[in-house]
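Treating backbone geometry as a discrete language has practical consequences that deserve illustration. The amino acid sequence and the backbone structure tokens for this protein are reproduced below.
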Amino acid sequence: MQRSRPPKNFLGGEVLGLADAAALEHPAEHLTTGVLPQPPSRHDVNLSLRAAWRVLVSRRGLVLSIVAGALAACLVYCALAPAQYESRARLALRTTPATTLRMDAGEGSFSGSLASGQTQLETLASVFRSDQLAWRVILEERLYRQPSFSGDFARRFPGFHAERPTPEAEAYLIRRFEDRLRVSTIPRTLLLEVGFRCGDGAIAAKTVQALIRAYGVQEEEARVQATAQAADWLREQLRALKTKSVQDDERLTSFQREHGLVIAPEVLSNGSTSDVQHVSAYTALDELARELAAARAERILREAEYRAAWQGDPELVLAADPRAGQDSGDALIAVFRQIRERRSHLQEEFSQLNPERGPNYPRVVEIREELAELEKQLQTEDGRLRERYRRAWELSAQREQMLQQDLEKRTAEGLQANAAALQFEAMRREADASRELYLKAQGKAEEAGLAAGVPNPEFRVVDEPRIAAKPIAPNLLLYSAITLFVAAWVAMGMAFAVESRWPRARSPLVLLLAVVLAPATMRGQAPTPSTSGLPTGVARIPQSSDTRPMPDPRDAPPEVAPGRLTTAGAPVASLTGAVPAPIGPGDLLDVSEFHTPEFHSTVRVTAGGMIRLPLAGDVAVQGMDESQAAQAIAAALTEKGMLRHPQVHVLVIASMGQDVSVLGEVMRAGVYPYGVHHQLLDLIAAAGGTTPVAGTLAYIFHRDDPIAHAVALDRSGKDVEGASNPELRPGDTVQMSRSGLVYVVGDVMRPGGFVLDPGHPMTVLQAVSLAWGPSQNAALKKTLLIREQAGGSRTVMTLDLKRMLRGQDPDVPIGERDILFVPNSAVKNLWNRTMESVVQSTAGVSIYAGLVYSQRF
């Protein structure tokens, strides 16, 4: 029969009747009637919109008074605050010259790099903010006489003179100018925005224009002064360089006339002339000497190659010849190289096969025949190579003799002009250096004079400053909207706080409490449960949901009973295992040899106990183990002359009828080879260990015995050779049992089911600690313990979890399949959400108002 829903209070909570309250206090007395109290649903603990509206209507006086007071304060401020006008101008940094007529192109003042542009833009902004530029604008525009800018300056400094200002007056004017000046860069552009704010829009526009104009005049004065200093120094250096250049020219002319030298410029390979001059006879002699040296070296090399090839092995001469790579097109050398490389490859292969393969190995016989054929070809090619070296030697000797005769004839002519040419060249270089230095200095002096008068602005004006039509402050609409939003949230929070704590308070008392409690409620920190009297390690109660993230249930370690087998804690298998079964018909073997990869084979033993392998043929392995089978195959390879020292390895991959199975609560159930896993713990470890809900009993079923044999696993993990780890038989099946569970649901950090070990009883606090403790909104005094009885009926017990955590009530044992339900508190949920919303909204509005104020002022 469905129960009717009881009425709710103003917070949406359910009001229990007398019968329900009695049932919760004495659950055992109501078991016979069959009517049990139902746990509160999720819908009953949430605040409805209708209930919230009723709270706001009942406290409308408080809400309206807070909102009206805040708006009145905002209106008073906007009415009394003086109006402020701002004029702005935008400047663009030049990345290219303003005109092609530039006299300082070599200075590189313009750069196309974005990083260098941003650096120049920041530097330009800092110059606009400088005190020197600000003071210059103040004096030019006489801002100290403008009441909209100076304020009470006349009262502070009555005897001020602009020609002789005091340090205090100058610092006061500069500080007021910098407070009203705004110089900022526009992100991701090379634009600079200059703005000035004061009580008169016309004065603000004129101040921005004067600031830009003053910067240009200041930069021009600095350029003219630096250019004048450099020009004076260059004029002094020009006089000395001109005198020295004239003297060097006169010395060169007199020396050339005295010695009768005819000197011409050197002609390059492309037909042009260079700055280097030379004597024709001396140049020809030098070229002949170089050609003779090269011809003599060529003759010596060719003679050495011929003698080495005739007396020894031409193959060694060819290997030592550095020019062999350049003559690869010659058919004779190409053929000889191919033969030699082929012989080297065959010898290398023969040296690798000979130590291990026998003389009758097919590849060994084939290599010996190919080597004999290549040896005959090498003898024929050696003769042709020796003849080639002889002809090259004779040609190089004839060329050397011709060059020697020509050199002796021209040596006499070149010696006469050698001494005079060397002295003339030294004098000419000195004169050229003096003349070049003079011309460079003269060009720099002329260029500096022209560059000083050419304007070179670093920026251009994009937007001229204009007179502002409307004031930027105070902004009545913006300030009213911000005040209304903040005041509405604060008023609603105060209304809910007063309704929850003082539901019968009247309007005057409510206003007084609102003023007193306002600073405390701005913290927005929900009350946290106390853990006084709680034993260490029993439960973990979070202090605030804002200070740490919610835990992930998948990261929690499973609760496993002590001594139970798991993947990480499985006992180590026994080291004294049973002897593997001998090889029999039907077994699958993996056979490999260390020196011969192509010998690797996977074969199955025939009914006669034989296996067929390449190079070895048929080998009998029935009744042997892996080591004996490897020795039998190695003996067959040695006997047939295929390998000298074979190293054979045999591995049994699969055996017929030698498997065991594992089922139930293991990580990887399946069939496993018996030869490797012959004990119970070995088989469980191979299956990945037991699951978190596995029991401590394992049932073994033999192939010829239908009765299950129960084995109790050792919880300590020490009895690996006793009754808890018996030997298995081929064909056995192992079934792992399952443990019981207890369920923790409701308002806890990690609800779910947890393993309950029958040998280690669990209590309510232990179950809550496995669920990572209750949340901050949990109703600890209304915890329910639901227990299933025999016959399908259930009993419900109400527990005071808060008193248990403090150690005031005894801890209640919990059994298998019990359900522990921790409900949610509507009052805590409402209070925490209200304070959180108020704090977040207030912080957001404050940040937004600060950003707006910083951008405008």
Notes: The chain has 20 helices and 23 strands. The domain at 659-738 is CATH 3.10.560.10 (Outer membrane lipoprotein wza fold like). The first strand starts at residue 85 and ends at 93. Residues 1-46, 105-112, 518-578 have pLDDT under 50 and may be disordered.
